[in-house]
Amino acid sequence: MINAEEFILSVVKRATEELYGVGDNIQIQKTRKEFEGDYTVVVFPLLKASRKSPEATATELGEKIVASTPEIKSFNVIKGFLNLAIDSSFWAARFQEIVETENYGMAPASGRTIMIEYSSPNTNKPLHLGHVRNNLLGYSVATILKANGHNVIKVNLVNDRGIHICKSMLAWQLYGGGETPASSGMKGDHLVGKYYVEFDKHYKEQVKALVAEKGISEDEAKKQAPIMLQAQEMLRKWEAKDPEVYALWETMNGWVYEGFDVTYKAMGVDFDKVYYESQTYLLGKSLVEDGLKKGIFFRKEDNSVWIDLEADGLDQKLLLRGDGTSVYMTQDLGTALSRFEENSLDDMIYVVGNEQNYHFQVLKLVLKKLGYEWSDNIFHLSYGMVELPEGKMKSREGTVVDADDLIADMIGTAREMSDELGKLDGCSEQEAAAICEMVGLGALKYFILKVDPKKTMLFDPRESIDFNGNTGPFIQYTHARIRSILRKAEEAGIDASTYLNAELLPEEVELVKALAEYPAVVRTAGEQFAPSVIAAYAYDLAKQFNGYYHDHSILKEDNEAVRSLRLKLAAEVARVIRSAMSLLGINVPERM
Questions:
Q1: Which residues have CB under 8 Å from 504's CB, separation 6+?
Q2: Cα dihedral across residues 386, 388, 394, 398: positive or negative
Q3: Are 97 and 2 in contact (CB under 8 A)?
Q4: Can you say how many angstroms the Cα of residue 107 is from the centroid of all Cα atoms in its chain?
């Protein structure tokens, strides 16, 4: 398909070569809205070759282009800028190409293999609102990268080992009384999370008691608290494969995985492969031993292993504790190595919150010092936290917004607001339930993904389900409205095949221009790992169509060719909205 910007660039380049003997350093940009035209040529770089004033150069160039290029209907000059207006016939041809392109907006195969890791939950608690942003962002970026022609491998690294896991296990042992998901009626991940909170409660009580009884500092009391010492001992037993501890670990993790699967399905995300830290940390340990032999790492008196990165502007980083147990960095080294070697990756993207920015700086640097050049192809897609109107969430204190509850609330709110607005009138109960699920999840996903990942965001559930404004339901409703128009046309036997006989109105040209930008938008979103670029485009397109539909009748238009054109244009807008929203992991309804 011909790209408008590339077309203009080639036209201007040909004209400058014929007039001035130069074809390099051509600068073009979209014409600002307050001026007439589609693309603007900056003529200042041509003045040395033209030996004329900016206005004279722009005028001469404009006359040359209009005379030799039928697709350029007119030009105007504003100081040193040449504004070119493209004829509607050019956009009619682009529209025909859009109609005829089956997977419009999708790029051909690039030959690149990219792995993207997202979710990365701990098996000591259920998924919460922060995980929701992570999962939705990771899944959408993966989908956008696929649309850019890359071979994408979606992976989940489950943090299934470590002191935090032992805390839940120990609390269940001490206070659980044999409770199970079946006996309690709780989802497995919720049950295990309950005991993570229980551990913290008893830990705080013990710390407070030690401070009062022994007169020691709080920091010292935290080290001496019996429940913490027991958890640390449990971790050592786990690494030594103690049968009893290992069996409990397998049982409780099994409960959590069953719970996670339910949440992932409800969220509409999936993975091609799941890694477990329990299977990768040993490889990380072998890398640390290798680094010690090469003198890259050093051992302290307490037997812990470190790397000194002060010369690189960082600090000293722990790689192995004195008792030989692993830290996150240890296992991340092992995981990165196994992934690049097993999958011949071109790039590896980690979707992890911005509190881990430093961690990934260190990870890349340590791998580089170990001699792995592919470390340059590791990218940390950092994102800000999600806050609520009432403040931040804390897992240990049990004040998180649970993902399952959030999804249920979103669907319930969608039902309530749809009923209020009469959006479900005439729908069967089954159809209404499906639409509310689609709208509730669409509202949640769009509200989160429309925000630049780097920004901390405030999530307001009710605001996200507004059917007006920059929301998922507004875009979904626009799609449903178009599909309703197309169904009525089909029922009335209206033929849309004569659309080629009608000339585009200025507003229709603007819609075609917006549709023509879609492949470039997909490309930009892929280059920047930014679903927000897709979200902004989908909203602008929906808003633009609604303005057009308000001013121009479609089904009641008397001229057959014009009516046919408007139906075809509406159909293509719906197709691109559906495609764009699918890149965000959002489904759009056929009716509302």
A1: 88, 91, 92, 95, 512, 565
A2: negative
A3: yes
A4: 19
Q: Which domains, from first to last, does the chain contain?
A: 4-86 (3.30.1360.70), 118-387 (3.40.50.620), 403-583 (1.10.730.10)
d(CA 123, CA 192): 8
Kindly give the residue spans of alpha helices, DSSP state H, lying in 81-122: 88-100
Asked if 11 and 38 touch (Cβ cutoff 8 Å), the reply is no
Cβ-in-10-Å burial (0-12, 13-18, 19+) of 367 comes to: buried
d(CA 272, CA 154): 5
- What confidence tens digit (pLDDT) does each residue in 203-223 have? 999 999 999 999 999 999 999
For 468, counting Cβ atoms within 10 Å of its Cβ (0-12 exposed, 13-18 middle, 19+ buried), the class is: exposed
Both tokens of 177, joined, read 């009384």
Phi, psi dihedral angles at 512 (to 5 degrees): -65, -40
Q: What is the helix (H) or strand (E) element at residue 220, kind and residue range?
A: helix 218-224
Residue 235, amino acid: L
CA atoms within 13 A on the CB side of 35: 20
Taking the C-alpha atoms of residue 31 and residue 8, their distance in angstroms, rounded to an integer, is: 12
Q: Residue 393: what pLDDT?
A: 44
**Which residue stretches of 126-180 are H helix?**
129-147, 163-175
- Spatial neighbors of 207 by CB under 8 A, at least 6 apart, are 218, 221, 222, 225
- 359 CB contacts (<8 Å, ≥6 apart)? 328, 329, 332, 352
What's the rounded Cα separation, in Å, for the pair 506 and 535? 25
Find out whether 349 and 115 touch, Cβ atoms under 8 Å: yes
pLDDT value for 390: 64
Beta strands in 310-459 (DSSP E): 316-320, 347-353, 378-383, 386-387, 457-458
E strand or H helix at 471: none
Best CA proximity match to 337, nearest among 291, 297, 381, 272: 291
Long-range CB contact pairs, 545-551, < 8 A, 24+: 545/478, 545/482, 545/511, 545/570, 545/573, 546/478, 547/507, 548/507, 548/508, 548/511, 549/481, 551/507
Q: Rounded to an integer, what distance in angstroms lies between the CA atom of residue 587 and that of residue 577?
A: 10
Which is nearest to 341 in space by CA: 115, 146, 109? 115
Q: Take residue 585 and report the two structure tokens written for it.
A: 């992991």
Convert the pLDDT of each residue in 3-35 to its tens digit.
899 999 999 999 999 999 998 889 999 999 899
Which amino acid would we find at residue 211? Answer: V
Give the chain's length. 592
Pairing outcome for strands 378-383 and 347-353: parallel
Segments of the chain scoring below 70 in pLDDT: 390-400
542 within 8 A of 481, measured Cβ to Cβ: no
pLDDT given for residue 28 in this prediction: 94
Closest to 218 measured CA to CA, from 227, 208, 228: 208
Q: Which pLDDT value is given to residue 398?
A: 47
- Angstrom distance (rounded) from CA 56 to CA 64: 12
